[in-house]
Each structure stands twice: as C-alpha cells, then as structure tokens.
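We store chain and fold; thus.
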Amino acid sequence: MARIAVGGFQHETNTFAPKNTPFAEFEIPGGWPPMTRGAALFDTVSGTSVPIAGAIDAAREAGHDPVPLSWCMATPANRVTDDAFERVAAMLLEELDAVLAEGPLDGVYLDLHGAAVTESLEDAEGALIARVRERVGGVPIAVSVDLHANVTDAMVRQADLIDAYRHYPHIDMRVTGARAMRGLLARIADGTPWHRRFRKFPFLIAINWQCTMIEPGRSIMDRIDHLAIDEDVSVCFCPGFPLADIADCGPALAVFGPDEARVASVFKEIDALMTASRPGFAGTLWTPADAIAHAMGAPPSGKPFIFADTQDNPGGGGEADTTGILQALIDAGAKDALVAIIKDTDAAAAAHKAGIGANLELALGAGTDQPDIEPVRGRFVVERLTDGRTIGTGPMQRGNALSFGPTAVLRINGVRVIVTSRKAQVADQAVIRHTGLDPAEMHIIVVKSSVHFRADYQPIAREVLVVKAPGPVTADLTQLAFRHLRPGVDLRP
C-alpha cells in the first residue's frame, strides 16, 4: 500500500486587476472550501468539486493511503502578497515535514492552479513544487492544474507529471484530480523517471474563446481524450491565463509517460492540432447597447438571453461591482431583466436595515477605484432579502457551499439586481434561485462571468452574448500594456 501525501494551493492571478490577494482571502473563499490542514482536510473537501477530492477518492479506491497536508484557494485577483504565499507555503511544508517524520512517502500529489503570481515570484507554483522537491528528493510528485495554468519550464522539470482540466467550464475538476492520482500511482509502480515533452505557444488566447463548449477548444479536447484514453500518458494542455503580465504567460503543452515514442507521438499530434486551430480562437464581443437592442427586439420565449459581463468576471480578477450593463439596461427601459450580481456591502446592509418593500436612494456599485466606472444612482425597491448562503446545484459547483454575505434583490423600474456583500463568480443558477427568483421568468440575465456560467446557464439560454463593458478582466488583450511577456508573443490568436 502506497503512502501518498496530498495537499494544494490555488490562485489565478490577474496582474491587471485592482486588488492584491492577502492571506485572509485564502481562509474563507467564496464558493469554495475554506483553508484546511492536517486531518481536517479530508472532511473539508469531501463531496466538493475540487481536484483534491477526486485525487483522495482515487487513491483510496486503489487501496492506498492518502496522507493530508494543507489546502487552500482564493478568488482570483491581483498578485498574492508575499506574506500570504510564504504563510501558505510554510503551512504545507510544516505538514509535509510532520508526515515525513512519521515515515517515508511513496508519492506526493499537489492540487495547484498553475497561474499564481506573487509580489516577488512570477511562477509561484514552480517555486512551491521546488520546495516540496527539496524535502522529498526523488519521490514522485504529481500535479493537477487548471486549464488556465501558465505552465512553466520549472514546473515541468520539478514534477514527474502534470495533468490539466479538459473542460472550460471546469466541470471536470474532480475527474482531473483522480486522473492525476492514477498517473502518480502508475509512475510509482513503474519505478523509473518518465519521459516528457514541453513547449509554449507564441500567442495568447482571450479566456472567452478558450471555452470547450465551442470550437476549436471542443475538438482539441475531444482529441486529447481520445489519445490519452488508455492513460499511458499524462497530458497537460493549457490555453493559459492571458491576464498575467509574466514571461511565461500563454498556452502550453506538456506530455509525460514511460514510453518515449508514445510521448513524442501524442505531443506531435496535439501540437499540430493546436497550431492549425490558432485562427479559430476568436469571437464576437457585443456592446451593451447592441446586446440589449438585440434581446429587446425578440419576443418572450420562456428562455432568457444570457449576457456575460466578461470584463467584471470575479473568476478572472474582477470585483463584481462594475455597472456598465446595469446602467445600459436602465437607460434602455429594459423589462424582466436581472443583473447577477453587484457587490456592494453598504447597499446590501441598507436594504436589510430598511426591509422588504422599502424604497432606497442609492449610488449602487463602483466600490473599487476603476477608470470609466460610475455607480448607478436612483431609487431602488427592496424586493427580497437573504443571508446569501446556499449550495451549488450546477455541473461545476454542485455540493459546494456558496456564501455571498447579506444579499438583497433590488428593483429599479423593470430591472432587478442581486446585491451581495461579497464578490463571487456567477457560475451556478443557485445564485439566482436562492433568492426565490426563477431564471426562466427573466427575458435578460446578466452574469458576472466569462465562461463558467455556460455549464449551468447555456442549457436554459435562448442565446448567449458576450458583452464588453468597462472592467479589469480585459477581453481584447491588445488593450493591455504587457511589460514582462517574453519576446515574440502575439496578443491575439
């Protein structure tokens, strides 16, 4: 029976976002399990969608003994503070030292994101894997990463294998953790170092067009599934997280396995497919006015138009407090429209104090100092109040505890807005349903998300429109002033 240490650290860093990420953001992240360490880890992640939960189950199903380290995640924002990263790393390494003191390990599994940047480190995961490697020597290390990982040479050199999500929306996080664990068990059984191939691609892909529910991502991932179906290779194909001003930003491919010829063959085919697919990684961005006119010109059908407020996506570093689409809906006289969400702690508190049915004069939203973003000023009716607590029911967040703090549904003319006290990406219909509203009764629903919403909202949508309103999660990468990106990388496919 193999003794395998399991732990993790996840952060997706948007270096263009308005706020850095302190330690407190890892303690209680919205929509994800809280920071945990030691024996409590198993209970904390049990039944959730995070990769480490799948890895633990896979180890146990194979008759092996996972040993807990520590695990934490924070909602995407700007750089992780050095203080936060060093405290997180120290916590994991302290647990690892204690585990090693009890006896030797056969393997280590790390649940990482792959796109974490700190105030001092462009490659936080590479640094963390290296610190683990110093502790365990030649013990095999397997890593699972997000599809948006900016995979680096250091990560590939330090790990024995890296496996990445194959779906965006990320409905396969547990599956990926389990697959990485099975790869680790194969590497342990094999007993010798695996071969590897790695490359970075010379262009960036905006996150909206990395979606695997649309082309070309769907075909690439289908082919990877076919190539790796017998699991004799570990494939890490990542379109990357393009909102990180670091040298290694962008798509990458790494393939690991015991058979050098097989590794080379799989690598060559995916490399060629990605290169051929490059022109397809583009799409249409709507202005708020055009999107609203398009939707308002269509008769009700029992299915809502879904607008992705992509540039204020909290899953990419937004603060969920921009107001461009909300103001445009009000100005257009939209009816049966819902904005999910606007984070405004003061407005939510005022609504709870005033009570249902009250009228409030508010300057709503725009709580973060960002250019071209103003609050929406007007008289709002308090329609519903909640404590902001619910459980995810959709494909991506099913079973996860969602917590938005005191929450209110406010209405201004024909537009409703869910106002929360904490930011969170709107990836699950539970965000709306927990207030008592039915998404099917809306004509237009605005979600603070870029792609993750598609897993739960696209099946109910009449049409999905990606809308570009002011916000920090820039959809047109040519508008960003990169200073550290390696030479020769194109900012569009």
